[in-house]
Amino acid sequence: MAEILIHNLSKTYRASNGGLVNALEGIDLEVKDGEFVCLVGKSGCGKTTLLRIIAGLEQPSAGEVLIDKKLVGSPDPLVGVVFQEDRLFPWRTVRRNVELGLELRKIARNSRKKATETYLRLVGLEGFADALPHELSGGMKQRAAIARVLANEPGVILMDEPFGALDAQTRNQMQEELLEIWSKHFRTVLFVTHSVDEAVMLADRILVITPHPGHIQCEYRLTMPRPRERLSPELIEFRQNILADLNTDVHST
Amino acid sequence: MARVAQLQGRQERNFTGLNTKPKGILTFVSAVIVFLAKILGVILLWQGFTLIVHSIFIPTPIQVWTTFWRLTLKGDVQGYTLPFEAWTSLMRVLRGFALAIIVGIPVGILFGLSNRTYQWTKFLVEPIRFIPPLAWVPLVIIFLHGESRYTFIIWIGAVFPIIYTTMSGVKVLDNNLWEVGRVLGASKWQLVTKIAIPAALPHMFSGARLGLGIGWACIVAAEMVGGGNGGLGSLILNYGQLLQIDAVVASMIVIGMLGYALNEIFVIAEKKLFPWQKDVKF
Ligand SMILES: Nc1ncnc2c1ncn2[C@@H]1O[C@H](COP(=O)(O)OP(=O)(O)OP(=O)(O)O)[C@@H](O)[C@H]1O
Ligand SMILES: [Mg+2]
Asked: Closest approach of chain B CAs to the CA of A95, in angstroms?
């Protein structure tokens, strides 16, 4: 359980041609304990950059990130990251991939085993525990990557387009599974996606990010109970409004 | 649960569908026929060549074949057989190779992890790498004795491919996996032992295979050092001096075949050990 606080965060990259890229500017954000927040925005608007800074993988140019009132400077196992690619270790079986975080933290073998089993079952991979990643489908790989993060029992989970590479049906199914896991374990989730459709299904709050420089354009609060009906009038309205926000930006630049 | 079972069922059906038996036997038989035909073709070409050139220094396939069996079963005038000589050479190569692994892999890991160390020692290591193993022979004769001479020549041939493939294996490590380690809370030491080294293992294996191949190919050079202490290399030199070219060619073929077999053993092991690695193995 944990909350995220971001103050006036900016990130400037030096491009290889010597110029400066303003990836993020003046980001202020507060994510409450147990909240499910989605970031939507066009390609290149800085979503991954923001997530990587929160994860401690990248340093901000200005501003600060606090998790549970502690300043983030480097990666912390209590902030879990699900990357856009599955990033499984090809030489480790699914089980040993899921176990990795616990192994690195030198958790005793017994409790490690128990936790691994629990989370493998949670993502429905118990039948593939001894398979190697290259023997899995894309969706199964992504589930294994999620189990690996969950097994570490982080207070915050950062997810960067985790379902981006999946087909529509698998994607919908993974969304349902993720919501189920989240509702049981009630962790703070920051979820990046291209898909407005995905965001309205998942989020308590949706932040629309627009580029040049990346900043939070507006936010939406969604209070409908889950599981949500994909084609309900409310969701359709949210979807249209958010899409309009994303598009106005195209005309203004 | 239901979904998992369904997936498994589908995989099994595919699997048995691909391995229907009659087809398997047919492919095997035709592969064997093609293989034999290729060998026959090479032998015929060789025979034709001897008919055209017609020199006493170019043995026919039959001459080499009979010499091969004579050397294999009866051996030379002193009674040393071809398998014995091959075994002698193999043991020498393996000794030099083992030493090359013991030195090459740690050095390769060190160079891969610390570019500084590599850059600092480059001025010394790089020139040595380009000195042919043969060039070491006079110094080796002066400074080393007995079997250690062979070990050194093979070692110097095998160690560099092992160092450099290991190094590049550690260096090309996917930054993505490194980040996963950091995010999951790995210490520096854990990043090396749990991520960098396992990730480089397939490269180390390839390096070992290349090193073994070069070590094996160094064998003639290595056995020039010792003079009369046997081995396939000295066999070639001795028969060469006697102008018994059929015996020379028979030994050359044995060297080539054994090298090929050693390499294949590694290739098969690599495919079994690292099934996710899809790179070309040669
Ligand atoms: N390491 C870097 N060096 C220089 N510029 C970078 C670097 N990383 C990102 N950028 C730039 O920062 C901006 C934001 O990139 P980022 O990857 O955060 O976008 P994104 O919103 O995640 O896009 P996508 O949806 O395509 O993943 C882009 O303009 C990109 O070119
Ligand atoms: Mg991105």
From this structure: 15
What's the pTM?
Answer: 0.80
In this structure, the dihedral spanned by the alpha carbons of residues B137, B141, B146 and B149, taken in order and rounded to 10 degrees, is -30
The pLDDT score that the predictor gives to residue A98 is 95
Longest CA pairwise span in chain A (Å) = 58
Domain that holds residue B7: 1-54
Give me the residue label for tokens 């290259």.
A134
- Check pLDDT > 90 for residue A123: no
Which residues on neighbouring strands pair with residue A38, listed in sequence order?
A: A191, A206
- Count of the separate structural domains present in chain B: 2
Atom of ligand 1 nearest to the CA of A42: 25
Reported residue count of chain B is: 282
The segments of chain B whose pLDDT lies below 70 read: 1-22, 226-228, 279-282
| C-alpha of residue A163 to centroid of ligand 1, in Å | 19
What tokens appear for A209 in the block?
């990010």
Instruction: Looking at the structure, tell me whether residues A199 and A141 fall in a common domain.
Output: no
What tokens were used for A227? 């599981």
Distance CA B128, CA A219 (A): 64
Residue B119 lies in a domain: yes
Task: Give the pLDDT confidence of B221-277 residue by residue, as tens digits.
Answer: 888 776 667 889 888 888 888 899 999 999 999 999 999 999 999 999 999 999 888
Nearest CA to ligand 1 atom 31: A44
Q: Is residue B278 part of a domain?
A: no
Q: Does residue B157 lie in a domain region?
A: yes
Q: Which two tokens stand for residue A28?
A: 């202020």
The answer to whether residues B113 and B31 belong to one domain is no
B83 and B134 share one domain: yes
Which percentage of chain A shows pLDDT scores above 90?
A: 56
Nearest CA to ligand 1 atom 1: A13
Contacts of A119 in chain B (CB under 8 A): none
pLDDT in tens, A198-243: 999 999 999 999 888 898 989 999 998 888 988 899 889 999 999 9
Structural domain boundaries enclosing A149? 86-153
**Domain boundary residue, one of A127, A153, A179:** A153
Q: Which residue of A77, A128, A132 is in closest CB contact with B185?
A: A77
A75, A89, A134 ranked by CB distance to B183: nearest: A75
What is the total count of domains within chain A? 2
